[in-house]
Structures are given as structure tokens and as C-alpha cells.
Amino acid sequence: MAQHMNVPGNPCQSIGPNSSETQCFITASQIADRDLNSFYGKLITHLDPENRKNLQAAQRLWVQFRDANCRAEYDLYGGASAGPTVRAACIEAVTRHRTAELKIMYGWTLDK
After folding, report:
1. Which residue of 63, 77, 96, 108 is surrounded by the most CB atoms within 10 Å?
2. Which pLDDT does position 20 carry in this prediction?
3. What is the number of other CB atoms lying within 10 angstroms of the CB of residue 109?
4. In a 3-state reduction of DSSP, which class is residue 95?
5. In terms of Cα–Cα distance, which of 18, 16, 11 is closest to 91?
6. Any idea where the Lysozyme inhibitor LprI-like N-terminal domain is (predicted)?
7. Exposed / middle / buried, residue 49 (Cβ in 10 Å: 0-12, 13-18, 19+)
8. pLDDT tens digit string along 26-76?
9. What pTM did the predictor assign?
10. Where does the chain have alpha helices with state H?
11. 85 CB contacts (<8 Å, ≥6 apart)?
12. What was the pLDDT predicted at 49?
């Protein structure tokens, strides 16, 4: 199975490989995206204009990277039935990791 489906903290580990697993990862990726957007939205209001501009540029590039990276992982499966699950698991894991990364890098700015 795909590596992203086996990462610690995977919200769908207890679900067997089938369409419900795909739906679980799709839902989990939506939750991860919502959490990221919520933190990013709070964060951006606490940054000075220069740091805000830098983070916005980095975030735009990160979204491009995430999408290309997860598309590449999907393509490893050559259109097989695991592809959609793999892609959703990748998006969930990478997005969740990005939120944690932003909290480590910028979280202290919220305490100013």
C-alpha cells in the first residue's frame, strides 16, 4: 500500500481497503485542509506586510508542490483502483504535515 496510507496519525488506519477507505481519506483531507486554512487565516493577520507576502508566496508554491507530489504518487498506480485512495491519503498527510510545520515555524507570532 501507499506510504502515505501508513504514516503515523493516519485517520483511516482502522478501515479496510475499499471504497469506504477512499471516502475516509477524502473526508480526512477536507478536514486537514480546513484546519490548515483556519490556522493560516489566523497567522496571516499577525504578520507584518513583508512576512505576510513571503508566507503567501511560499504557501502558493507549497500548494503547487502538494498537488504535483500527490498526482505523481497517484500515477505510480497507473489508473488502478487504489489510485484515488492513494491520492486522497497523500493530500491528507501532506496537508496535515504542513499545518504542523507552520505551527512550528510561525506559531510563536500568534503570542505577540
Report:
1. 96
2. 86
3. 14
4. helix
5. 11
6. 21-102
7. exposed
8. 999 999 999 999 999 999 999 999 999 999 999 999 999 999 999 999 998
9. 0.86
10. 19-45, 49-75, 83-106
11. 2, 5, 17, 21, 22, 25
12. 97
Distance CA 36, CA 56 (A): 13
Q: What whole-number distance in Å separates Cα of residue 36 and Cα of residue 51?
A: 18
**pLDDT class of 3 with cuts at 50, 70, 90:** low
Of 3, 8, 11, the closest CA to residue 92 belongs to 11
- What is the reported pLDDT for 21? 84
Measured in whole angstroms, the distance separating CA 74 from the mean position of its chain's CA atoms is: 15
pLDDT in tens, 4-30: 666 677 778 766 656 688 899 999 999
Residue 14 grid cell: 482502522
As to burial, measured by CB atoms within 10 angstroms (0-12 exposed, 13-18 middle, 19+ buried), residue 72 is: exposed
- Using DSSP, state whether 33 is helix, strand or coil: helix
In the chain, what are the domains? 20-111 (1.20.1270.180)
